[in-house]
Q: What sequence folds into this?
C-alpha cells in the first residue's frame, strides 16, 4: 500500500494513484486545514509543501508526490511554537473570512524559505496565484515582511 | 536572393533553377530540400502549443489566443518560474482532468530560444546562429523529435472548459522527419 509522508508521519493510503493529494489529506487523513477552492490550481487555496516547495494539492496526484515529504498547515507550527508566518498573521490580524488563509500562509512560508527577506516585488511574484475574496492582500504583504523580521 | 516559398514544395531531381525577380539562381538539391522542409516545419514552431512557452517576454502565454499567463506567472531566473511560484507549483507530471496541462519538466524555453515576434526567416536565423542558439542543429533534431515537453504539444489534453486543446498542424512524426531533412541538408534558412 502506498505510503504518504505528511507532517513527518508516514500514512498508508489505499487510494488510486491519480487521486488528488487534497482528497487524501482531507477525506482520508482528516487534515481539514487545507482547503478546496477551485480544483484547478487557479486560486492557491489548497497550497501545501512538497519537499519544501509550494504545491497546489488539488491538481497534484498521489503519483506526483510519491516519496515526497508533504507539509500542511497543521504541520507548519503549533500554538505554542507558531511558524514565523503564523505569528505574523496573528499579530497583523490578516484573516477576514479566513477561507484562503491556510493556502496564503503555506505560500508565504515557501517564499520565505527561498527568500528570507523578500521585497514587495518578490512577494507579489510569489503570492500572485493566491486569491482572497476578502481582499486581504495588503495585510498579507505586511505580514510577510513582519514574518521576515522574526526569522 | 529572394524566392517565393510556394515553389519550394516540389521534390526536385537534381539541381534546380528558380526564377527570381532579376536573375535566375541555381540552387543545389540539398539546399532546396532543406528550405522546403523548413517552410513546412515552421508552421509547428509558430503554433501556440510551442510559441506560448518560446516567448520573448518575462512570462509565458496560454491558450490559442496567446494571452498572458494567468496569475502574473513570471519566467524567473531559471525559466521555471519565480523561486516560490515555480511552474511545478501547479503543472504536474501529466495533464490534469481539471484542465491544467502537465509534463514532468514544464518550463519556459530560455530567451536564447525565443521565437515570439520573429518572422520565419528570423526564427530560422535564431535556430541556426551559434551566437544565439543554445543548440546545435543536431541537438535541435533530438529536441524536436524526442523532448517529452515538445511531444506534449501532440498530447495537450483538455483546457479548463473541458475542450480539447488544438494540436500543431501535422503529426509529431512528420514534424520530426522534416526537422531531420532540414538539418541533414544543411539547415538552410530563407533569405
A:
Amino acid at each position: 500500500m502506498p505510503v504518504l509522508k505528511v507532517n513527518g508521519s508516514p500514512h498508508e493510503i489505499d487510494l488510486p494513484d491519480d487521486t488528488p493529494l487534497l482528497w487524501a489529506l482531507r477525506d482520508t487523513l482528516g487534515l481539514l486545514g487545507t482547503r478546496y477552492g477551485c480544483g484547478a490550481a487557479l486560486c492557491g487555496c489548497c497550497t501545501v509543501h512538497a519537499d519544501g516547495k509550494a504545491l497546489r494539492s488539488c491538481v497534484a496526484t498521489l503519483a506526483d508526490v510519491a516519496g515526497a515529504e508533504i507539509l500542511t498547515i497543521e504541520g507548519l507550527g503549533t500554538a505554542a511554537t507558531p511558524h514565523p508566518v503564523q505569528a505574523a498573521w496573528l499579530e497583523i490580524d490578516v484573516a477576514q473570512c479566513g477561507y484562503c488563509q491556510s493556502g496564503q500562509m503555506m505560500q508565504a512560508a515557501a517564499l520565505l524559505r527561498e527568500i528570507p527577506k523578500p521585497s514587495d516585488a518578490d512577494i507579489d511574484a510569489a503570492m500572485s496565484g493566491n486569491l482572497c475574496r476578502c481582499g486581504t492582500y495588503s495585510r498579507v504583504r505586511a505580514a510577510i515582511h513582519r514574518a521576515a523580521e522574526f526569522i | 536572393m529572394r524566392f517565393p516559398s510556394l515553389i519550394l514544395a516540389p521534390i526536385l531531381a537534381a539541381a534546380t533553377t528558380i526564377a527570381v525577380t532579376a536573375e535566375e539562381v541555381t540552387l543545389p538539391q540539398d539546399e532546396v530540400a532543406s528550405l522546403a522542409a523548413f517552410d513546412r516545419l515552421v508552421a509547428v514552431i509558430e503554433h501556440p502549443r510551442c510559441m506560448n512557452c518560446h516567448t520573448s517576454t518575462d512570462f509565458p502565454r496560454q491558450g490559442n489566443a496567446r494571452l498572458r499567463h494567468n496569475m502574473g506567472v513570471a519566467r524567473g531566473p531559471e525559466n521555471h518560474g519565480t523561486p516560490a511560484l515555480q511552474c511545478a507549483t501547479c503543472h504536474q507530471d501529466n495533464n490534469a482532468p481539471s484542465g491544467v496541462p502537465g509534463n514532468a519538466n514544464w518550463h519556459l524555453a530560455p530567451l536564447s530560444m525565443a521565437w515570439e515576434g520573429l518572422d520565419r526567416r528570423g526564427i530560422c536565423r535564431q535556430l541556426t546562429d551559434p551566437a544565439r542558439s543554445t543548440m546545435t542543429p543536431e541537438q535541435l533534431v533530438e529536441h524536436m523529435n524526442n523532448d517529452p515537453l515538445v511531444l506534449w504539444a501532440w498530447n495537450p489534453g483538455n483546457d479548463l472548459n473541458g475542450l480539447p486543446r488544438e494540436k500543431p498542424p501535422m503529426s509529431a512524426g512528420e514534424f520530426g522527419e522534416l526537422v531531420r531533412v532540414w538539418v541533414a541538408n544543411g539547415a538552410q534558412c530563407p533569405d
